[in-house]
Amino acid sequence: MNTENSVHVKPETRNHKGFFVKQGAYHLKSIDESGWALICLDDVVCYYVDPDNLQANDALEEADA
Question: Which end of the chain, N or C, is less surrounded by CB atoms within 10 Å?
Fold first, then answer.
């Protein structure tokens, strides 16, 4: 996974359909014109989520310190 676009979802994050998204590392693909962020676990599993519910890996490392 490219760490440059690697993000984690915050707890209680839901996708655009209202279903919970499993916490973990995702690859940020894009943010579309309507404001949804497209994140993918792999080449098959992708979700649209609110970009405010994403954390960059840098933020996680600082929180652990």
Answer: C
Q: Which helix (DSSP H) or strand (DSSP E) does residue 63 occupy?
A: helix 57-64
Q: Tokens standing for 38?
A: 């497209």
pLDDT at 49 (0 to 100): 98
Q: Is the pLDDT of residue 19 over 80?
A: yes
Residue 1: partners with Cβ closer than 8 Å, 6 or more residues away: 25, 27
SS3 of 12-25: CCEECCCCECCCCE
Please give the sequence-ordered ranges of beta strands (E in DSSP) within the chain, or none if there are none: 6-9, 25-31, 37-40, 46-49, 54-56
Question: What span, in angstroms and rounded, lies between the C-alpha atoms of 65 and 51?
Answer: 24
